[in-house]
Amino acid sequence: MPPSPSSSPPSLLARLASSASLASRLSISRLFSSSPPAMEPTEDSLRKALAGRQAAVDAQGNAVRALKAGKAPKPEIDAAIKALNDLKIEKADVEKRLQAAVSGGAGDGALTREAFRHAVVNTLERRLFYIPSFKIYRGVAGLYDYGPPGCAVKSNVLAYWRQHFVHEENMLEVDCPCVTPEIVLKASGHVDKFTDLMVKDEKTGTCYRADHLLKDFCNEKLQKDLSISAEKAAELKLVLATLDDLSADKLGAKIKEYGITAPDTKNPLSDPYPFNLMFQTSIGPSGMLPGYMRPETAQGIFVNFKDLYYYNGNKLPFAAAQIGQAFRNEISPRQGLLRVREFTLAEIEHFVDPEDKSHPKFSGVADLEFFMFPREQQMSGQSAIITQLGEAVSKGTVNNATLGYFIGRVYLFLTHLGIDKGRLRFRQHLANEMAHYAADCWDAEIECSYGWIECVGIADRSAFDLRAHTEKSGVALVAHEKLAEPREVEKLVIVPNKKELGLAFKGNQKMVVESLEAMGEEEAFQLKAALESKGEAEFLVCAMGKSVKIKDNMVNISKQKIRENQRVFTPSVIEPSFGIGRIIYCLFEHSFYTRPNKAGDEQFNVFRFPPLVAPIKCTVFPLIQKPEYESVAQLISRSLTVAGVSHKIDITGNTIGKRYARTDELGVPFAITVDSQVDVTIRERDSKDQVRVSVGEVASVVKEVIDGHRTWSDVWSSFPHHTSASAED
Amino acid sequence: MPPSPSSSPPSLLARLASSASLASRLSISRLFSSSPPAMEPTEDSLRKALAGRQAAVDAQGNAVRALKAGKAPKPEIDAAIKALNDLKIEKADVEKRLQAAVSGGAGDGALTREAFRHAVVNTLERRLFYIPSFKIYRGVAGLYDYGPPGCAVKSNVLAYWRQHFVHEENMLEVDCPCVTPEIVLKASGHVDKFTDLMVKDEKTGTCYRADHLLKDFCNEKLQKDLSISAEKAAELKLVLATLDDLSADKLGAKIKEYGITAPDTKNPLSDPYPFNLMFQTSIGPSGMLPGYMRPETAQGIFVNFKDLYYYNGNKLPFAAAQIGQAFRNEISPRQGLLRVREFTLAEIEHFVDPEDKSHPKFSGVADLEFFMFPREQQMSGQSAIITQLGEAVSKGTVNNATLGYFIGRVYLFLTHLGIDKGRLRFRQHLANEMAHYAADCWDAEIECSYGWIECVGIADRSAFDLRAHTEKSGVALVAHEKLAEPREVEKLVIVPNKKELGLAFKGNQKMVVESLEAMGEEEAFQLKAALESKGEAEFLVCAMGKSVKIKDNMVNISKQKIRENQRVFTPSVIEPSFGIGRIIYCLFEHSFYTRPNKAGDEQFNVFRFPPLVAPIKCTVFPLIQKPEYESVAQLISRSLTVAGVSHKIDITGNTIGKRYARTDELGVPFAITVDSQVDVTIRERDSKDQVRVSVGEVASVVKEVIDGHRTWSDVWSSFPHHTSASAED
To answer: Which residues form the Aminoacyl-transfer RNA synthetases class-II family profile domain (chains A, B) (predicted)?
Structure first.
């Protein structure tokens, strides 16, 4: 199923990065765009070959017509026709190879990928792993419900996330509201920059994402119109590759140039314009306090930095974490669980001294080896390569050990969940994808039928976020370090004259004083110069929402040499951010397989979830409907509940084979079948191997394997094997 | 601290119940209103006594003045003055008793309650259990963040909820989005009826909850103005008791009558008008699809009934459950965590055959005894009484065994968390609190410093919710039961004539057909009568938003005898709904206590959380800063991590007493102190008892006690005791 790792074009991030420092901050909560299908290297030559064959067919066709017109002898005409047919066959062959090349690189690979996806999604929806929300009201695009097994998988993934990250590192977990006042998201940049470009059907008003329409047009042209020239194909591919870099104007121009119209009506389209992706609302009854549903959970951590730093005993480094809902009002959601309007994020903000980004536990992950895809490999058209993490850090490919530590921990997290190592890579952001302040950024990308999907972003965001909130709020989000010995530094000193300010501004005095004290060096010396030359100056007090007149007796601004006992600085933030729904969807694809029954006339679906992830750990079946067996099953069920093993008891009269098939399709790793009052069998899902265990012992054996304290092969070698007389399939 | 159980006035529910069938549905997600302080029975007589004393003082004052004016002999005047002073003292005494009576019933009980609350809340905010959200931007009323210990407590409570309810009963847990399209909440009634009455300051536009202003006025008058007559006091108390029943008009009239003005400006107020409490937003870019942030999680379950019923093998009973955020745009939030704009709900919808509400596991809870407060006790002014649950069900006080089973399970859940049994009661809704369709409804109320707080609602809502969505969506949310033998029933048969309807309504034919088929019996026979008498009739087609003309050849309506093999019915819903934030806040109050140090000159705060709830289970301290001790501490920390015991290691140089005090204040049940490389001590938080355990064994001993596999008293009797030489305090 898996196409091999291939290079990915710059993602949506590029556009953001070029437009604003916001870029990287927005990355994980909005991007994750899948790459268009990779193009085979032969495509270009095939297009040229096809043009040549077409010319040959045309020429030979003319020749045949000329022979016929000139009443040439029949054998001569027949020979020419045969030559024409041979040329047509040759052309058809090239056409076929070109078709294969453009539709996914591996013959009918694209088709296979879609068929595979169809099989997985069909199983997932039929067994209620997830379903479109509000189905009885025809649903809403981009909103999904997790049904019982999906909800259990999600809760297992989150519990493991909490154990693997929060508990292991003693992170400070917080839980903040989704409703967020505008000022917070103004400071973070989301109010101004969290947008996608949109076009409207000029007659019906239906909205489309501008880049999606252009992308669909190019892909369609490349895949379905085999007659386009190699030059045209190259142009379209360039558009696809630079799609995320296009400004509104350029995107609009391309849409006009290609004559793209509204897909549903063929009506003309408006020019592209930005649409903010946050769900807006209003807090309280007055209508005066605009708010948004948070687009990410990180801001809730940043605004609490001061309290969290204090909670941690005023010591760095420390990490805070949050799991919660985030919201993004997509223009036109696609790709099922991968691009939705409401999703669960799990985010970590690790605060660290910018002068010391080492990590005490890095050695514990340094030996890990996995696919990494550094900037250089991407730029030179190479593939991801298996790299030792320690080497990547020591060579400087990964910027620092803390970033490297989290890359390693994310690798362990994802592979323990059951993500296939061969379809997981860490891709470094290209220079144009990153904001100017970011030190480095790596995405954990997982390959699924939609291509390579960004599922976790791991970014060193330097001091950007804390500085933005310090500026907007006037509260210093900084850390302190006691110096071994005092040092002398030159420092800006602002001394407001509270008496004069009080006389001039009365009740507003405090706001003016705070604004004066919050000035940066440049602003302060501009004010000083103005006061010295004119005796007074206009000064903007944000908290009052207006400028006031400051006189030269109201504030003293100077630079003084000061002996400092401590260093005050804004910490750097290293942020691993997890799109939980995306990870789960990829996990579904990586875990899914089908196998035939014994007769070979039917295919059964299986999810090979590890016990950690499986929605239910065990099922209990009486082999046949018989009161004695049923009461043994109830007894075992009770022991499993006491042991905390989530399970399901199935006393329906279905055949045992059917019942196995039904639970395999839910990914249940073990089944206990009751066929006596003394011993029962435990069946392992993937091998279908069965052992016999006593009724009293069975719950604890299953518990041990589930908890990872015992392996199945150990169980297999410790208990008598069982060969089922009842045909399983 | 706890005032004893007292009767509570009808809650806000009353208003809703009287206005609409929506009432009970809205209860848990909006109400939980605390009762005003209970009035002592002596208050009325004290007011009368005070009026008598005042009259006596006035009369004696006049007598003194008359004596003085008549130049009476000095001894006579002195005697009269002494009598006057005695009367004044008597009056002051009555005044004092009245003051005590009105301010909480127990002398300075109200003051004590507030002081207690202040101490708890101060500790909670200082240790970051919770804090106002977006503090650096001056916060937003009604939004709170859980900091690290609060977040851990919340996650422990939710994990236990999942274990105690979802896993124990094999409930079908789902996870639906918060963003909800309007049509769903139109069907549930929230769009039309989920409102509070609001008044506006006519000059500034500031908004207030109308009932809050009237309530504050009455309480203030009753508590601070001792001169009002007993009659006036009775009137004000009647207003308070019927506050929730007042219509907008009556509420407005009372506000005018009492001359109530805007609290901040004393400006006049507008008439009260309804304000919808849902946060509104818009889904997608068109602005054409209104949506709301869900006010409760239950609707996500109801709309999925059909799929869930199928998932459960088309069998009743079964329960679905959901944990998630809910939103309520309060007009003016109060009472900290108890009335907030965003909160976590955990809801269960147990679907059951209305003809059989027995429960197979009821016997497991029938012997439980706790405070119940049935309707009759409330109406006759009695208190809650300790009742055996089995008796309450068998006597019919509780409507049915399934409802009773959940009451018992809720009792076990809350008390296992650490809620004080003496301050927990199950209060039955009064007849006027319940919607007409509800069979019965009980609230688990917990007493805290704000009074009795509704924390869990347990309602038998009959078939209301499924019917509402069946009607609106046209999808039948029903269950089927195979009958043992077929039965003959008379049934409404509606046969639309599709040909005629097609000719008349063209593209709308389908909507008309569906509307005709969806008619109830009464409506159908009215239509039949109209068609027979007049040959045609107006007929409302909801989906088209208008009435159409139906002719008598377009539909055939009759009653026919039909042999049925199955019974088709709408299941009843029994809904336990948990306000998680409220439970947690009450738990904080019930767990908090202070104790003096040995010198008795300082008070230390302690939370007596059971291990199940405690944010951290254990702390590890080296007794003094010494590398050997520190490495033992690290070793123990590692074993605790492996054992999955959340803990904190504290290697600061603070005194051991200070470190104990700091973790007692977080409610950490055990502390391991390292004072040797062989043995260490384990200290239990509440008893402060210490035992000595070997380094190798300590993690597993703590783990056993945390998991409930061993009690502390067993540990205490198994290991040598330790008497600390270092003064703990």
So the answer is: 118-596
Element of type H or E holding A440: strand A440-448
Report which of A592, A421, A444, A415 is spatially closest to residue A1, judged by C-alpha positions: A592
Fold category of B195-276 in CATH: Herpes Virus-1 (3.30.40)
Nearest C-alpha neighbor of A124 from the set A151, A161, A158, A160: A151
CA dist A573 and A462 (Å) reads 5
Provide the CATH topology of domain A43-103: Helix Hairpins (1.10.287)
pLDDT in tens, B506-527: 888 888 888 888 888 888 888 9
Residue-level pLDDT at B41 = 42
Structure confidence by residue, pLDDT tens digits, A531-577: 989 989 988 887 677 788 999 899 999 888 888 889 999 999 999 99
pLDDT tens, position by position, B174-193: 999 999 999 999 999 999 98
Residue A136 with chain B: CB contacts under 8 Å:
303, 306, 469, 473, 475, 477
């003496």: which residue's tokens? Answer: B422
Top-confidence range, A417-426, B96-105, B194-203, B475-484: A417-426
Token representation of residue A55: 């010319």
Higher-confidence residue of A492 and A694: namely A694
The reply to whether CATH 3.40.50.800 applies to domain B616-718 is yes
User: Across the interface, do A170 and B198 touch by the CB < 8 Å criterion?
Assistant: no
pLDDT mean over A621-629: 91
A positions 180-219 inside 8 Å of B (CB): 180-181, 183-184, 198, 205-207
Could you say which of B146, B176, B311 has the minimum Cβ distance to residue A174? B146
Write down the domain spans for chain A.
43-103, 484-569, 616-718
* Residue the block writes with tokens 């127990």: B106
* CB of A325 less than 8 A from some CB of B: yes
Burial B659-671 (b: 16+ CB within 10 A, else e): bbbbbbbbbbbbb
Q: Please say if the pLDDT value at position B104 is more than 90.
A: no
Q: How many CB atoms lie within 10 A of CB B49?
A: 19
Contacts 24+ apart (CB under 8 A), B487-490: B487/B563, B487/B564, B488/B561, B488/B562, B488/B563, B488/B564, B489/B561, B489/B562, B489/B564, B490/B559, B490/B560, B490/B561, B490/B562
Residue A195: alpha-carbon gap to chain centroid: 18
- Cβ of residue A329 closer than 8 Å to a chain B Cβ: yes
Say what the pLDDT of residue B520 is: 80
* CATH architecture assignment, domain A484-569: 2-Layer Sandwich (3.30)
3-state DSSP of B242-265: HHHHCCHHHHHHHHHHCCCCCCCC
Contact between B415 and B583 under an 8 Å Cβ cutoff? The reply is no
Tell me, what's the pLDDT at A724?
A: 62
Answer yes or no: do A137 and B644 touch at CB < 8 A.
no
- Reduced 3-state DSSP string for A563-597: EEEEEEECCEEEEEEEEHHHHHHHHHHHHEEEEEC
Euclidean distance between CA atoms A234 and A214, whole angstroms = 15
Chains A and B: how many Cβ contacts under 8 Å? 217
The token duo for A292 is: 């948004």
Tell me B624's DSSP state: S
CB of A300 closer than 8 Å to CB of A310: no
Contact B558, B490 (CB under 8 A): no
Give the lowest-confidence range in B32-41, B257-266, B560-569: B32-41
Answer whether A289 touches B (CB < 8 Å).
yes
User: Average pLDDT of B479-488?
Assistant: 90
A426-440, A555-569, B2-16: least confidently modelled range: B2-16
User: Which helix (H) or strand (E) element contains residue B724?
Assistant: none
Of all residues in chain A, the percent with pLDDT exceeding 90 is 63
Put simply, the answer to whether B178 touches A342 (Cβ < 8 Å) is: yes
